[in-house]
Structure formats: C-alpha cells, structure tokens
Amino acid sequence: MVAEVTVMLEGANLTMTSSVGTSPLEKKEEDVFVITQFQGTAKFNRDASKKIIGITINAGGYLLEGTRTEEGLTLSSGRVMTLSKQGSR
Predict the structure, then answer these.
(1) How far apart are CA 74 and CA 80, in angstroms?
(2) pLDDT tens digits for 40-70?
(3) Who is most buried in 2, 4, 48, 67, counting CB within 10 A?
(4) Alpha-carbon distance 81 to 42, whole Å?
(5) Would you say residue 80 has pLDDT above 70?
(6) Cα Rg for the chain, rounded, in angstroms?
(7) pTM score, whole prediction
(8) Of 31, 34, 37, residue with least CA distance to 53
(9) How far apart (Å, rounded) are the C-alpha atoms in residues 31 and 67?
(10) Mean per-residue pLDDT for 26-48?
(11) Segments in the chain forming alpha helices (H)
(12) β-strand partners of 46
C-alpha cells in the first residue's frame, strides 16, 4: 500500500515519488497529468479561485483521493501527499 506521495517541481518538470518508485508527470490536459511509469493519471482539483484543493490519482490499481491541508494534500485514507519545489521539502 502506498503511504505517501510527493510531487516535486524540478525546473519545468513535475515528478511523483512514492514507496513504489518515481515517475515523471506528463501534462495531458488542464490539471491532468499522465503518471508515465505506472500507466495512470493524476488530476489536480481546484477551487473557483484556481487554488489546488485536492488531487485524484488513478494508477497501478489504486484510486486515491486527496484534499489539501497545511501539511500538503492528505489522501482519504490518511496518507499524505507532499507538494514541494526542488531543494525544499
């Protein structure tokens, strides 16, 4: 089971890392990215002011829903998704 997912912005590239590995995220459409190494998708959910408020991950047999907290994005099962820029965490 995936306990934590970290999305990092490295220059202009997004990557997603978890206990099962790291994958580049390739933009598919507005707020939807392909998780290339796991044949899945990540969709960032936004509010009316365009602020990211959650994420939906569908990959590797998992469907994970997350909501944003001060610590990052907390997935529905209590798992944490951390959003960070290169060099910070």
Answers:
(1) 4
(2) 999 999 999 998 888 898 987 878 887 776 6
(3) 2
(4) 12
(5) no
(6) 12
(7) 0.75
(8) 31
(9) 15
(10) 94
(11) none
(12) 52
